[in-house]
Amino acid sequence: MTDTTSGFGTGFETLAGARSSTTEGGVGTSPERPDGVLKVTGDFAYASDLWRDDMLWGVTLRSPHPHARIRGIDLTEALTLPGVFAVLTHEDVPGRKTYGLEHQDQPVLAIDTVRYQGEPVALVAADHPEVARRAAARIAVDYELLEPVTDAVAALAPESPQVHAAGNLVRHVKVRRGDRTVRGEVVVSGDYEVGMQDQAFLGPESGLAVPDGLGGVDLLVATQWLHVDQRQVCSALGLRPDQVRLQLAGVGGAFGGREDLSMHVHGCLLALHTGKPVKMVYNREESFFGHVHRHPARMHYEYGADRDGRLVHATVTIHLDGGAYASSTPAVVGNAGTMGLGPYEIPNVEVDCFGAYTNNPPCGAMRGFGSVQAAFAIEAVMDRLADAVGLDPVEIRVRNGFHEGSVAPTGQVVDSAAPVAELMQRLQAMPLPPGGAELDLRRLPGGVSNTTHGEGVRRGVGYAVAYKNVGFSEGFDDYSTARVRLFAAGGVPMVTVHTAAAEVGQGLVTVEQQIARTELGVDVVVLAAKDTQVGSAGSSSASRQTYVTGGAVKAACESVRRLTLTMAATRLGRDVDDLRLEHGDVVDRTGGTVVALADLLGDAAVEDTVEWRHRTTYPIDPETGQGDAHVQYAFAAHRAVVDVDVELGLVKVVELACTQDVGKAVNPQAVVGQIQGGSTQGLGLALMEEIQVVDGKVTNPSFTDYLIPTILDVPPMPIEVLEYADPHAPYGVRGVGEAPTISSGPAVLAAVRAATGIDVRRVPVRPEDLTGTR
Amino acid sequence: MRVTVTVNGERRTADDVWEGESLLHVLRERLGLPGSKNACEQGECGSCTVYLDGVTCCACLVAAGQADGREVTTVESLGDAEALHPLQRAFVDAGAVQCGFCTPGLLVAAHDLLARDPDPEDSDIREALAGNLCRCTGYEKIIDAVHLAAERMAAPADGGAR
Predict the structure, then answer these.
(1) Closest CA of chain B from A132, distance in Å
(2) Which of residues 701-720 of A touch B (CB under 8 A)?
């Protein structure tokens, strides 16, 4: 192995023989992100920064009740307020009145029933946001309150009231493999629970809809997938795709929370009704109601092993609360079901994973997507099994962990690197942080609240492993489109890359430039605006964009390169196989310049548009869950070190170390950023983040009461990145973004258990869970 | 009402301001300075951190009328694309910027820290930036960036430091 250490103290290991790019700013380097300067000067235009001279402000009236029938809506008082331009209800939706990612079950505006607190009921456009808010408050909605369904397990009982006419079951995934009557000699089992996490992206849902005067509309919006939005907006407006043009506005984080529509249709409706541009910006409270959350989970896990700690069987039941509308619940259930046993070889398995409708807030995509919830149970059970057979947490994972060639519970063979054992062993070999010799309040549980000077503080260490499917699974046609144009301007060769792939902060824009530089040997790469004038890129989710849109950009560049070199060969009478593109020139085998690209191209441009797909996946068998459902697996592992004040139940994470295999670090700095950010979101779920829902109502929709980790809550995060190239993927990449969010929380929980001796089975951990005072 | 504020050294006036508007709203929607961000509008996230008469505060918690006659300094004044402040340069170089929505507030808060303490330790940086939420980075690279800026400001290589 060669060590290609990056500039920020993180070691990168490359497989011997793997060729890394030498192109400046190309693949394998960490060039400056193209939006970096704009973001530090305040000039980057986020969706909430958009502005037009004559624009109106739109607001949404939402249901205060989790379940109610609407007997009537009186708009009179709202319409008479000076400054109000439009007040709209479901009657003003010209096309299909419901939408959704997988099932079109969610009303654009409530029709006769509201099924969750916060469901949109009416819209107002006015010349000032406060006028719009006051008008919305004057809309009189006559509700007949109904009993809400609030328990995802009870919702599936035959006697439960139905949230939707077709019943409360969204999806049931079964995985059956081996002999279900075979049991391990040593068996552990338990019930685990995960609370509802919020994506809490900082940039609120926002957008600007601009009518074109011809019945169509341009929508500038913060989103994760322009084309799936366009499809749903067209359907609701009854317009053609050429009449509804979307452009990506600056996105202030996403993490799954922008996969579903927010203000999209609403803004367009108001703009088309008023003939004026309409801006909508949610405030933080509305944001908590304006997007889906991570599914809360209740899970029963039983794992059995032989006396040596080798897994023999697993029997698992998972209930996910999908809330009032389906969103991406079917896919989340698919993930939790097929991935819900962890990266371990288990010959005999029985998994039942259910997603249910309730009158709780709708749940859908969030980073880790079904794998996060399951990992808390899996890793806890693995630790208990280790205890029962007398192994340490590292050894039991080394003994059972996937390796290349392992067979997953779905029967799918893991056909590229799966270095679970190495990830664990490398973590264990990393030095531990020093114990509390130094007394700095800021490093103790409770911090500057001055709640302890070290008395009652116990240290614990815990480990966990993550694996996550990369890309869309189960036969989904998961592709991306890239248009690449090579031209010369002012004697300088340049490339334009046009994709619709959403930059949400992860740095995909940098990666697109890097790939074009590497493939075309050109320094200057311009990115066209992300919009629907080019084909779909698929979603910026499922850790997939570097793989899939990266693959599309690479393929389009390869095509443009072939066309360009053929042009050069023909014109110069050379053999095309002898020519390459390098440093803005066409060069021969010796590296000598044959012709400068700018001279070759002149006024001409070489362009191609390519739709690129990863290898095919297949649906799973509905009775056995068997099938090659997934494209690729990502692996990460964490070691958490915590100090717990056992008298007060306060936890301070001292260090959170991570090892992850990324296949190929296309941008090492961005890879580390993804790992650190993802690890932090997992830490948050473990210790503090929960949307608290009581009788279907959210009690903490603010950053005062919904806590996300601050810089004081986050410890140093040493990272080792491995690069075992996946031969099936472009450049060998393996999706990066989600895996660290999966294992960090379970590692923290394991460390808390080790420190306290308390078998905590619910996250987030509350102080009273550790003090026995609940 | 009319609100007159000296923003980034320039006297600016906004008319027809509703009494309930925040300084943040006036900066963003009336004075064309959207650099200060609207992430929570309840003083919890620090994305709208500005200087008010030289003291950092959340612009979302200041009523516009309270700022009348006072001096406001926003992220837009730190530096521009041609002449970035070393902190801005360091945030880009260190990878401290992902979605960037927290960045303007963090830059102002870090600017305030370095003015008080030109060579802060990790714990000092964590304490000073504890009022600024970031959801993307996990904060590690933000700490790297503040150290990097402090180093460069202590030994300016090209005279670019302010």
Answers:
(1) 13
(2) 702-704, 708-712, 714, 716-717
| ipTM > 0.90 for the complex | yes
Q: B3-76 and B86-154 share one CATH topology?
A: no
Nearest to B141 among A32, A673, A679 (CB): A673
DSSP one-letter code for A361: P
- Domains annotated for chain A, with CATH where assigned, are 22-46+479-613 (3.30.365.10), 52-146+202-253+258-290 (3.90.1170.50), 297-473+619-771 (3.30.365.10)
Query: CA torsion angle for A260, A266, A272, A273 (degrees, to 10)?
Result: 160
Between CA A252 and CA A263, with CA A257 as vertex, the angle to 5 degrees is 80
Nearest CB to A41 within list B20, B76, B141: B76
Which tens digits make up the pLDDT trace of A296-348? 999 999 999 999 999 999 999 999 999 999 999 999 999 999 999 999 999 99
Confidence of residue B161 (pLDDT cuts 50, 70, 90): very low
Which CATH number applies to B3-76: 3.40.50.740, 3.40.720.10, 3.10.180.10, 3.10.20.30? 3.10.20.30
Q: State pLDDT tens for residues A239-262.
A: 999 999 999 999 999 999 999 999
CA distance A554 to A540: 17
Cα A486 to Cα A399, A494, A496, A553, A579: the distances in Å are 52, 6, 7, 13, 17
Does the CB of B36 have a partner CB in chain A at under 8 Å? Answer: yes
Residues 6+ apart with CB under 8 A from A624: A174, A175, A176, A177
pLDDT digits 0-9 by tens, A186-218 = 999 999 999 999 999 999 999 999 999 999 999
pLDDT tens figures, B101-141? 999 999 999 999 999 999 999 999 999 999 999 999 999 99
For chain B, which residues make up each domain, given as ranges?
Answer: 3-76, 86-154
- Residues of chain A neighbouring B18 (CB-CB closer than 8 A): 128, 130
Pick from B84, B98, B135: CB nearest A40: B84
Strand A244-248 and strand A217-221: the pairing is parallel
Assess B76–A contact: CB distance below 8 Å, yes or no.
yes
Interface of A with B in 487-506 (CB under 8 A): 504-506
Q: What is the 3-state secondary structure (H, E, C) of B17-70?
A: CCCCCEHHHHHHHHCCCCCCCCCCCCCCCCCCEEEECCEEEEHHHCEHHHHCCC
Tell me if chain B has a CB within 8 Å of the CB of A253: yes
